[in-house]
Amino acid sequence: MSEQPDFIRWFKELTIEDIPLVGGKNASLGEMYRELTAQGILIPNGFAVTAEAYRYVLDQADAWEPLHQALDDLDPDDVADLARRARRAREIVYASPLPEDLERQILGAYAELKRQYGDDLSVAVRSSATAEDLPTASFAGQQDTYLNVSGEQSLLDACKRCFASLFTDRAIHYRIDQGFDHFKLALSVCVMKMVRSDLASSGVLFSLDTESGFNDVVFITGAYGLGENVVQGAVDPDEFYVHKPTFGQGYRSVLRRSLGAKKIKMIYSDGSTREPIRNVATSLQERDRFCIGDEDVLVLADYAIKIEKHYSDKAGHAKPMDIEWAKDGLDGKLYIVQARPETVASQKQGAILEQYELRERAEPIVTGHAVGSKIAPGTARIIRKVEQLTEFKAGEILIADMTTPDWEPVMKIASAIITNRGGRTCHAAIVARELGVPAVIGCGNATAAIADRIPITVSCAEGDTGKVYPGHLKFDVNRTDLSNLQRPKTHIMINIGNPEIAFKTSFLPNDGVGLARMEFIITEYIKAHPMALIHPDRVQNPKEKEQLALLTARYASGSDFFIEKLSEGVGTIAAAFYPKPVVVRMSDFKTNEYATLLGGRGFEFEEANPMIGFRGASRYTHPAYAEGFALECAAMKRVRDGMGLTNVILMIPFCRRVEEAERVLDYMAKLGLKHGENGLKIYVMCEIPNNVIQIDAFSRHFDGFSIGSNDLTQLTLGVDRDSQIVAEDFDERDPGVKEMIRLAVAGARRNGRHCGLCGQAPSDYPEMAEFLVETGIDSMSLNPDTVLKTTQLVLETEKRLGRT
Fold first, then answer.
1. Residues 164 and 183 in one domain
2. What's the domain count of the chain?
3. Which of 194, 209, 233 is the last residue of a domain?
């Protein structure tokens, strides 16, 4: 009697080399169970029903010929024909009985798993195709998964359904697109302990930023309940970022977080229906808090870094990973339930930088999470149910509540995708990235707010927020080959205020950030006046009081809210360019600008000329704002000392006199930002003629100068740049202004201090960029859209001057 084949492999017996035997999912789980459990990563135990078992089932049932008849000569673009043939193929596989010896082995392994975890064990039964999770094709969601399966017959039935799901419409279409032969592939089944995330939370994490491909962060998404909602895009999840380089140095902080709506959660059914799982609404309290705390975020970041390192190649090149996690509500522990190579951002090749930019403006109809960085015009086409997919025409913009893998045949012919629900790691987002089309995900009301069959423009080129505009707006696409771009001796730095574009902007050739503006972060993310957050009781307007209470509801105090939001915004910019220097200017609002912030009017003075009034350094130690400046300093201390982003250089704006500089620096030291401590450098803006005249004295207190050519011009020429009557006399190229700049550069060099320029002049006027190079300035900081053009000009000027 011949020896019975063994169709079962336990995780501890598998490695990543076993993909042909057990598929990508099982091979990865086995690899991690064997190799990473010792490093503290928790993997639920389980076993694989091998791909040979799948072939054995079809062999015994003589099913191959009927399958060929069902699938040969298939036209994948005929959606109706695809659906008919796929259904027939699934029926053939599902009708093939499991041979008795295979059943016996599956149930024997199930009994062994119950001995480990207890008789009340439920399992997840998951498909693991032999071509999935490859570096160039994700196969994400192509086959089926069955959760909360318990009992022998339910397990056997789930295994058969998994085998049949090799022939879902989406899987067949995807294989044809990827060039895989249906009959050379097979399907293994994963049977693993079910993590009780129905009682806690779960989600998806990536060991890079999925939108930009920025590799120095771990990006984590999560929501309450079982993970299917996050994967499918049925829920808008919470988001977290952790910075890998500083985490590796021992710093333990969340770089940035974003609260998702999380309106539903998937839990186990109560047994009253045949479905083992169901969705229920989350409570308002659940929606208003994060699904996991910072401690859990940092554990997941640690898991991600270890998994990525394990899969890195022999040369140490990181292999970005796409990882599913689940928190068990019974034991409170975090488990990894799947890991596969990330297949989009990490596959981008070449040195062509592509930048999309809108040339027209309009009020967006809806906004959501931006996926990708492109702009696409098209005709809106709302699809409410699968049956309507046959009506969709190539080049239209797909608008839906959410998408599933069944929608992929039309997603690949859409010019853009818009959904009501989902986060940046959901099905629609993953497929949009693979296809290279822009998507705006989780808009909430897109199918109601956008009229069907009207012209619209989808823009994902404006940061994390994707926007859908009415009409076909004009836009530019700029492509630059960076492969042979030399670096000039003069440092080319970047001006930036928006943290949402920081990761993407970091790919521009640069020497760091010469001006990171706090004002954008305060206006867009904090929205409230710092003093109003400290003293909400002094805010007179009842509506503003209510808005302040809403803003700070999740925080112990308004001060904590301000510190967290500002440190996350600045920290994101600093992390994007780490370890290059990032010069952060402390707040430089004028009184009229501060007054527009929530609760601000009661804390600001009326000034006839705010431009030269109570702004910059003069505010910092003044009783009217000293407490607000203390919050700014607390946030910067958190960025440098708590997050470990010591590449941050602080800069004091509009410092009129040396005595004022001394007062501000003394106050900063008392607040924990002592010049020189922990490598802290402090620069000053050189934007007042007195800064130039007394540059030797200012040099004794500061490490460097950044020339603000806008203010220096108006104060040298006596021109208010906000006055339309005399604005035409405002010109940075005036000989007097240029002489001021030349004296500043020479004075800084004389004192061994850094000197850069962060004004608009070199971006607007090529001759100013040439002049700055000729003076020997150390750096110039430019707006992102002028970096490449000005870099070329600087290179040419240096070559002419013989400095190459």
1. yes
2. 4
3. 194
| DSSP state letter for 370 | E
Task: Classify residue 2: in a domain, yes or no.
Answer: no
DSSP-derived pairing of the beta strands 754-757 and 475-481: unpaired
In which band, very low, low, confident or very high, does the pLDDT at 271 lie, cut at 50, 70 and 90? low
Q: Are residues 707 and 759 in the same domain?
A: yes
Which CATH number is 442's domain given?
Answer: 3.50.30.10
Q: Over the stretch 66-112, which tens digit does the pLDDT of each residue have? A: 999 988 888 877 878 888 888 999 999 999 999 999 999 999 999 99
Residue 803 has pLDDT above 50, yes or no: yes
Q: Which of 449, 480, 511 is the last residue of a domain?
A: 480
Domain match, 12 and 92 both: yes
C-alpha dihedral (289, 291, 294, 296), degrees to nearest 10: 160
Mean pLDDT confidence for 226-245: 93
Phi first, then psi: give them for residue 215, nearest 5 degrees: -95, -5
Find the mean pLDDT for residues 187-201: 96
The Cα–Cα gap between 450 and 470 comes to 9
Q: What is the mean pLDDT of residues 558-578?
A: 98
Residue 697 covered by a domain:
yes
Q: Which domain holds residue 74?
A: 8-194
CA-only gyration radius of the chain, Å: 30
Measure Cα distances from 687 to 182, 338, 470, 758 in Å. 69, 55, 42, 10
Determine the average pLDDT of the residues in 249-255: 97
Do 203 and 257 lie in one domain? The reply is: yes
Alpha carbon separation from 614 to 155, 522, 600, 759, 761 (Å, rounded)? 72, 18, 14, 21, 25
DSSP string, 475-517: EEEEEEE-TTPPPPSSEEEEEE--GGGHHHHTTSS-S-EEEEE
CATH number at residue 308: 3.30.470.20
The pLDDT tens digits for 453-483 are: 999 999 999 888 999 999 999 999 988 777 7
Reported in sequence order, the residue ranges of 553-631 that DSSP labels E, i.e. its strands, are: 582-585
* Residue 675 sits in the same domain as residue 707: yes
Task: Based on the fold, state whether residues 532 and 519 are members of the same structural domain.
Answer: yes
- How far apart are alpha carbons 566 and 141 in whole angstroms? 38
CA angle 761, 767, 772 (to 5 degrees): 70
- The residue type found at 297 is V
Q: Is the pLDDT of residue 140 over 50?
A: no
How far is residue 45's CA from residue 10's CA, in Å, rounded to a whole number? 8
Query: What DSSP string describes 502-564?
Result: HHHHTTSS-S-EEEEEHHHHIIIII-B-HHHHH-GGG---HHHHHHHHHHTTTSSSHHHHHHH
Q: What is the CATH number of the domain that holds 582?
A: 3.20.20.60
Q: How far apart are CA 211 and CA 433, in angstroms?
A: 8
Q: Which residues are catalytic?
A: 427, 758
Q: Is 138's pLDDT higher than 70?
A: no
Tokens 């607390």: give the residue: 634
Using DSSP bridges, classify how beta strands 8-10 and 123-129 pair: parallel, antiparallel or unpaired. unpaired
Which residue has tokens 């490598």? 679
Say whether both 91 and 173 belong to one domain. yes
214 in any annotated domain: yes
Q: Are 205 and 325 in contact (CB under 8 A)?
A: yes
